[in-house]
Amino acid sequence: MIRPFELFIGLRYTRARKRDHFISFISLISILGITLGIAALITVLSVMNGFGKELRLRILGVISHVTITEVDGRLRHWQAVASKLKEDPRVVGRAPYVLGQGMVARGKGVSGVMVRGVLPEEERQVSELADKMVAGELEALKPGAFGIVVGSALAWKLDLSVGSQVSLVIPQGQVTPIGVLPRLKRFTVVGVFKADMYEYDSGLVLTHIDDAARLYQMADAVTGLRLKLADLEAAPRVAQELADRLGQEYTARDWTREHGNFFRALKIEKTVMFVILLLIVTVAMFNVVSTLVVVVTEKEADIAILRTLGASPASIQGIFLVQGAVVGILGTAVGTALGVLLALNVETIVQGLEQLLRISFVAGDVYFISELPSDLHWDDVALVSGCSLLLGLLSTLYPAWRAAKVQPAEALRYE
């Protein structure tokens, strides 16, 4: 237990005298190392939290929380399935869809896409694409009109605008006298959306569900029923319960199964970054160890005098624990404050640097998003600060133990 005596002497030792300026300089370097390590760790974790949150929101703004279909990949009588789920309070939106692959061509430009047939009046229940239109509107998709809504990146790539004519080629072949040829249909662009995710802005097109069903020869069936849940985190459990409730001929997939590996990779990356950046703090703690060892060597005579005056080995150990703890606490406190400040303003700082240096740190076609988001979690701040304080305490144990082992007679022999 540290008493006022140990606290007073330990704090006194932290204030260097003229002949101890070198020790003070090493202590300052240790504090700066801890500060920078903590600040970098909090900032990076916040950015990774923001990155994961932003991606999840944007992905779930386009895909569904849960997808219901039959085991053969087609859903017949989707209206009956939707009516069964209408009374479930966990399901807040339902919409049928037809999904297929294709190629959009205009002139010499060709791009592979995923084609999603939707009911415009129902699509608003399960996605945010209707609110992300930058030209035209989703309701312009009419059955039999063969209209198409494209992403902003695809529109830029093929120079498309509302009213443009494009050809949609699908892999399902048709038999002709000259052999099997891919099916092709002319579509008119009736809208352009911008989901702020390059993957969807460049590779997803929407058309009316009736036109998609005719194109992919689905007859009266659809690919499945998309559901939006009140609690997206409960999607795995709800999907399993709905599948059991509907029967063995139905299957249910939730968003964690479709993109689970991606979000697990983000979580693993966050853990790895935490460990790597924590090594910066650990290196700074080695400086604390070396500083305290030097201090113990310099103060052997003082330690011997304190021992002869009645100080116990535990008191001597407490003195140097206080001195090391001051360095660790000070570095952790300043680093935590700096890290929180950076995490809360990282978007503004990055934008300022991009304008100043005229470069882009986050390319949308590489990182899926074009901005650097930040989401500060106070549990991460507590974890980082706690690890730093623990490392600071551990770094003081050996020097304090060494100080407690100083023998007064040996230390004063040559004084």
Automatic annotation (TrEMBL):
GO terms for biological process: cell division; lipoprotein localization to outer membrane; lipoprotein transport. The keyword Cell division applies. It holds the Pfam family MacB_PCD. GO terms for cellular component: plasma membrane protein complex. It comes from the Bacteria. Residues 27-243 form the MacB-like periplasmic core domain. It is found in: Cell membrane. The chain crosses the membrane at residues 21-48, 272-297, 318-344, 381-401. Keywords: Cell cycle, Cell division, Cell membrane, Membrane, Transmembrane, Transmembrane helix, Transport. InterPro entries: ABC3_permease_C, Lipoprotein-release_system, LolCE_TM, MacB_PCD. Residues 275-408 form the ABC3 transporter permease C-terminal domain. It is a multi-pass membrane protein. PANTHER family: LIPOPROTEIN-RELEASING SYSTEM TRANSMEMBRANE PROTEIN LOLE. Belongs to the ABC-4 integral membrane protein family. LolC/E subfamily. This is Cell division protein FtsX. It comes from Candidatus Muproteobacteria bacterium RBG_16_65_34.
